[in-house]
Design brief:
Elements lengths: L35 H26 L8 H36 L9 H7 L4 E11 L19 H13 L4 E4 L2 E3 L5 E4 L2 E4 L2 E3 L3 E6 L2 H10 L1 H13 L2 E12 L25 H4 L2
Antiparallel strand pairs: 1-7, 1-8, 2-3, 2-7, 4-5, 5-6
Helix pairs in contact: 4-5
Protein name: Membrane protein
InterPro entries: DUF881
Family: Belongs to the UPF0749 family.
């Protein structure tokens, strides 16, 4: 026997008189409710579509701002660092000017920095006699297969040895590549790439030191680490040259000068290379 099943209408609530009929036959049915999960999925899809559209438009409008290879990215970042460094120099000059104005308004007369302090701090350009030292990787065509390739490139410790020897020899100011370096400067070598103050350089690496050329040469000759590099330069073809200069021109330092973790130990010269009486004035 065939039985036809019919869904029984839901009993109307007590206040059904106040609720208008919702069925086609005039009977009352409970209103449908949209599931929370479905609503959340729809919202996520809508937001994803919006983000995709925004990213697509940004890529189309600013394609020139996104380099397509590492070389372009490196050049773009180097240009950005150079621009920001220039802005830092401008802001630092403005801070110094405003500080002087505030001191004058308050009737304060701070003791001016000596010439030696300005030079050692890198706040002024420097011109004078000195040395130019150039270090370079061994030429590719002259490299030997029986030698560890790691010995055929300039390393961070090689540059550090040269610069430390020049400081010990009485260098009053120093530059690495096209930047001024001071006692708090730090650089790193990654492979054969030098990173200094946010900029990237490739060999040959040029170190310039203002000071007595005779004393500077003697300090280089007295350094065991420098002597080891010079020996490898003769045996393996590494680049090495030292030239006297009558008028080196070094720019002012443009990096950060604040110290966060470092303190000067007792008995350490704050301004190496200067007479003791000038350091305390």
């Amino acid at each position: 026997m065939n039985q036809h099943l019919h869904r029984a209408p839901v009993a109307a609530p007590p206040d059904a008189a106040a609720v208008p009929p919702s069925g086609r036959d005039g009977r009352w049915w409970p209103p449908r409710r949209i599931a929370r999960g479905a609503l959340a999925v729809g919202l996520v899809l809508a937001l994803s579509g919006l983000m995709f559209t925004v990213n697509a438009r940004a890529s189309a409008d600013g394609g020139s701002r996104h380099p397509q290879n590492l070389a372009e990215l490196s050049q773009q970042e180097a240009a950005t660092v150079e621009r920001l460094s220039s802005e830092v120099d401008t802001l630092r000059a403005a801070v110094e000017r405003l500080t002087d104005e505030q001191n004058a308004a308050a009737g304060l007369t701070p003791e001016p920095a000596t010439a030696g302090q300005l030079v050692a701090g890198g706040t002024v350009p420097v011109t004078g006699p000195g040395l130019t030292v150039v270090l370079d990787d061994a030429p590719v065509e002259s490299r030997r297969t029986d030698v560890n390739p790691d010995l055929l490139v300039v390393h961070q410790q090689d540059l550090q040895s040269v610069m430390n020897a020049l400081w010990a020899g009485g260098a009053e100011a120093m530059g690495l590549m096209d930047q001024r370096v001071i006692a708090t400067s730090a650089f790193r070598c990654v492979g054969n790439v030098l990173r200094l103050h946010g900029r990237i350089y490739s060999p040959p690496y040029v170190v310039q030191a203002v000071g007595d050329p005779v004393r500077l040469r003697a300090a280089l000759a007295a350094s065991p680490a420098v002597a080891g590099y010079v020996r490898d330069a003769g045996d393996l073809g590494l680049g090495w040259s030292v030239q006297d200069q009558t008028a080196l021109e070094l720019p002012a330092y443009s990096g950060a000068t604040e110290l966060t973790w470092a303190d000067v130990p007792d008995g350490v010269d704050v301004l190496p290379g200067l007479p003791a009486d000038e350091e305390t004035t």
